[in-house]
Amino acid sequence: MLTALHITGTYAPQMLCFHLQSCFFNSIRRFGETETRHILHNCSKVHLYRTNMFPELNSILNSTPDSFKSSDFILVSDRRADASFLIHHYLSFYLRAGCKVCFLGLVQSFSHYSAVGQRLGVSLAQAREKGQLVFLEGLKDSFGVLLQDTSQETQPLSYLRSPGAGLEGLFRFVERSVRQSGDGDAGESWGPPVLLIDDLSVLLSLGVSVGAILDFTLYCQATMCSELQGNMVILVRCEEEDADDDEGSNLLQRGLVHQCNLALLIEGLPTGYCRDIHGQMEVWWRPRGETIYNQRKIFHFKVHDKGASFFARGTSSAVL
Amino acid sequence: MLLDVIQTVGGFILVEDTVQCSGRGLLRCFINAAVKRQEEDVHVLGFESPEAEMCAGLDSSCVQRLHFHKGFPDPLGWTRRSSFTIERFTSQHITQLFKDTQRAKASVLVVDSLSMVLRHRDPVVFCQTLQELRKGGVIKTIIGLLHSDLHQQGIVGIVCHLASTVISVSPADNERHSVAKTTRRTKSGKVMQEEEYFSVSEDATLSVQAKPHQPGRGQKEPDVSETDPTSNLTFNLRLSEEERRAKEKVALPFVFSQQKKSALLRPAPGSGRIVYEPDASDDFDEEDPDDDLDV
Fold this sequence. Notes:
Chain A has 320 residues and is an alpha/beta fold. Helix content of chain A is 35%, strand content 20%.
């Protein structure tokens, strides 16, 4: 494995090569960068480079897999556009950062995320085997719940049978997944826990009330962010209804914006479909404890095969 | 008026906010002011934020008068870790809470947030509870935070109607301040309204600035200078002093100035005049100059 490696002059601590075996990666995480350099010192040469799929987004949000803010509740919402590329980004981001990830995939199958993850350079199957990723496959597991005669309150998908009862079962599943101490195969201890949900608005279609969903996210925030200092990323999809409606996805989105620390609001361009710009993203920083200074910025983005590029409005490559 | 409201004792004060601007900072100012007033006991029901966030920056010497009832990690009792759940938001439980710790005469109840309670309670029952708490005699002042964009307009209207003072918070153009619209109803029925800029500092003190009269005028930044459009050109657009004076002297063609008026009124020499000398046979009748009347 340690063949044909070459130390470049402009070596920076964040340079990691994800094509090397995962144990090498774990060595850097466990021993730190300087110790790994000592280990590599005896090798012939080391070439480390970074494959970063979302460089502009990382610089806009000022976060990298090595250094990101903890206790963050990130809300991703979309309207007339598809923001699921951000979920794939965050999934690979946190897996690379070595966090324990609990993913509630309610709308797509595991193989879908796995395929996209391969393109972004992470292997979901491997992460799941090692215990780093806990994946709730909503589509597959829902059959089991619907075909059973009785359902228990504590089952994660119990809302399918009794949507009025609330999401306590789902919360308990999340809590169990993130509270398990690191007991992977090699005795790994993972970083801070992360909860990813794709997507929350589908629960509205299944009959769960907005209040119940907001309670669920409040409990998740209390556990993940306040208590365990981990992060949460939730995707919610809004419909084109009247923005002041009192029921439905817009109300849910407003309630979640009240709770979150950072909101990424994805919308299609107001002027319509464009081949070179897929939409606009508004980044809304909402630090808790600071009431007044709410910073908002708008960027345009284009989604590629292996990532997305973000640029200031008017600076698309098609224009300049 | 906002600074007066912060220091008032008695009544139900409602802070309304939206996603655009959060009212929690203002709520912290209320808590800070109440705690600093020596004679009062302050009870805070925190359902949406942790104690650390609500009590950040408060004066540590006054903190004994502050009783924080932790609803936050567990407001619905799912994990049985909180001391106060939403179910216990009834007038009996709350009054009991106050009687257990009552030392001072006046008591203040702060609720963060009323939206959380309204989500789980029937609005009618909620209003009855609030009214019972107000009239109960144990609690003097109630201060609550309501997210007005999370409820139907009618419900927000009901809660505002119950309140003696409503403060609506919204963002201002200036990033450092927010706008607070205060509506205050006195016992005599008089309603006073005022809009002010305010900002909350880290130690939960409020600073208020009066709002300028024209709502459209934003604050101009002093260091932005206007660019001179006549500079950096390949042709000259500037005027010298002589040229400027000559330009101002020019009489515009279609302007009816005083000079033109007097020129028209004055008989100019050489203009046409009619001179008529009647002949001998001319019968010039003043009343019939054309000689065609059939008299």
